[in-house]
Fold each of these.
Amino acid sequence: MARFGLPGQAAHPAAPSPTPAPAAAPASAPAQTLASPPPPPMPPKHVPTAKGGPPSQLDTRLRLHSRLIEELDLAKLDKLDEKDMRREVMSLVADFARSERMALNTADLQELGASIYDEMVGLGPLEPLLKDESINDILINGPFQVYVERRGELELTPVRFRDNDHLLRIVNRIVAGVGRRIDESQPMVDARLADGSRVNAAISPIAIDGAAVSIRKFSKKPMTLEKLVEFNAMPMAVADFIHGAVKARVSTVISGGTGSGKTTLLNALSAAISHGERLITIEDAAELQLQQPHVVRLETRPPNIEGKGEIRQRELVKNALRMRPDRVILGEVRADEAFDMLQAMNTGHEGSMATIHANNPREAIGRLEQMIAMGGLAISPDAMRSQIASAIGLIIQVMRLSDGKRKVTHVTEITGMEGQVVQMQDIFTFNRTHTDPDGTVHGEFRATGLRPRCIDEMTRRGIAYDVANFDPSKALGVS
Ligand SMILES: Nc1ncnc2c1ncn2[C@@H]1O[C@H](COP(=O)(O)OP(=O)(O)OP(=O)(O)O)[C@@H](O)[C@H]1O
Ligand SMILES: [Mg+2]
């Protein structure tokens, strides 16, 4: 019944799980020219429990990094020339391999040493986490506390930095990579890693307990609708419907809270767009990975150090409309560009899409109104609402539930205005039934029984959809 015709794929491959660093195994102190004073003790935070079995490769690398951080004076390391630095790192790696009784031949050891060296001069202890594809988010709360999110769950890792200076050096490396800087006068920065991962860093004085860094990793394999169905984010009947609606050029807004899966769903849904269309994407930090051949990507630009040269989303949306797009895809509507986006949807760019930060479909409409009002345009609330009502066809609400799972909780159609109110009707909803003591949420997806108006447009365009799915008497999926 899978209509997207993609081979079924297993959920995330079993991933190595970080296990704790051994309780400060005193490093056998070889004669180190770079030996430095002992690092501050690990804070008495909880340490993740080992899940048993042999230590994973990730775990070994993380411990190797901790060992290097303990034993090398990183400030000096930065000043050494490459050959000396490599030699220092190599000798410590060889020492570690011996003490861990790792069965490595010379070539393996060389390879391990070289890759650890690259990690040390790259993003240090973060590199193994960046390489681990099962990790979505990396959250650094000061030098001694690094969490990751995997499959919706936060885990504390044994990763640590030597001290705040070490962490700051790495933050500086990241922001310098995108031509920006971070210091006391500008203590918050958005940046991007070379692989496209999104980074936000906040340092002293606004971050009180050391630098706070949040990394949303760029997933190399974008999620497909098929996979979202497999992960139970929605049943096939719902995926099929929204896929058909996007294909039929119904303008769609994906609404949800932070990290609820908005961008992921937008990416997946974009597969419904035909390859013959010209798409223009507009984002603050390019994350979308559209599969179509004809895509122009635009990205905002922050002001420079003198506060000049900023290019905002609003200007990009306006510009995009002069570039003859078939559809405009706005990564996230957050300010007065909302007005221009609605205008685009109302003037021949049907099928345009955007995400918005809101907790339910009604709130999404309210947020759009606020955004337009804040732009200071001379437009009455009534006119604003009728713009919204005529521009947007569907609102898809996504939510990160208390157990970390992401779900499509509402597929809601905007049907027009009645008096001064934007009319909307839910087509499908996810209804919670109960929550286990461990927090796992159970519920079912069901149609409300209302027949969406856009089904006519879908039919006109030859997009078949099984209307039996609108029967409210049967659950479409249970989780
Ligand atoms: N259905 C899902 N199942 C498992 N993981 C998911 C699902 N949807 C999204 N994710 C993961 O959750 C993380 C957050 O997703 P995403 O970036 O799409 O959220 P967002 O709502 O756009 O966040 P933000 O508000 O920060 O822009 C990503 O790492 C993504 O891979
Ligand atoms: Mg997003």
Amino acid sequence: MQFSREAYPAKVTTATRGYSVFVQTAAFWHTAPHRQHTRDIGIRPQFKSSRAARWHSAALGYTLLSYLLGWAGLLAGNAWLFLPAAVLLGHSLVIAAYMIHECAHNTVFKQNRHNAALGTALSWLCGACYGRYEDIRYKHFRHHVDNDDVVWFDYEAFFRSHPRVYAVTRGLEWCYVPAHDYLMHALMMFSAFIIPQRRDQRGRNITVLALRLTALAALLWWQPLAFAGYVLAYTLMIIVLRFMDGIQHDYPYHLRLFSDEVSEHKGDAEWEQLHTFSNVISWRYEWPNWLVLNFGYHNAHHAKPTTPWFELPTLHRTLFGHDPDTVVRLRPQLQMYHRYRGYRIFHDAPGLSPKEGRDFLQAAQRAELTGGNAASFLTAF
Ligand SMILES: [Zn+2]
Ligand SMILES: [Zn+2]
């Protein structure tokens, strides 16, 4: 399987100074258990380029700072700080999640193992550490290489065979509670006990559960308001991630994560672009897209997956031009998210017919699509 396509940007210039203690610690913990890697511990992670050093450091610095400030605000026990602190903490989780995506594509450091170390550390931050980082990376690469939504969990079949769970989930979704994704994240927490192919991770799964649930239980006991703030922050992360994921492809999912079945469109770059869509926060200004690390520029990302987040807007305009009709603007995205919130599980909104390719893009621009809920790269099954 060809994982990395071309090196972009091709020029890897300078090593960097000023990377954080966080990254070094992450690299240490990632490599320390493996004896064959012990000689690498002393090698400092080097960013891919001086631009990468600047922009990735800014994103990582922001993630850490907002994470710490968010928790400090929640733990202060001040009711006035509750909402801003929860939003700040939630946004730190969003950026952490998108930095995992950057690590998965090895856009941050020169050495893949340093990207893996950082991705692993960040997965602890955003609660995606119950399984292995490698599983997240593998499933996401299948998404890119197979041009498919390659999964193990058949949530449609699950909801069909559990109608009461479906009714409750749909009701909560109607109230803007991301219940479908709560279910996905709950599965993630117990994935080694649910997915037969991940049985070998049971020890790890139990350890992570014990650590995180103990910490959360302690928080609930001593600072129930801070606990509520964390739940809110985590919910915000889930909502932002799925809002961005929801209309980026018209692929149906296929249960091929653990099978050798080859996807019909594997390697077909033209088909891939026709069935991939870019949903931006702002077309006119760049900075609002930084709130999601430019994740909306999904056509550009699929065209050159090794392009770091800070170069995606330029790449989009280089490849697809300056026409705003190449993207879905924020307004129709919000309209769809609101209007079809009860229909995103089975895509069964009355009056809407299934769309593909160019028709899908135009329907999205008219806010006439349901979108999906459960395509997050964090839930790797
Ligand atoms: Zn994609
Ligand atoms: Zn990707």
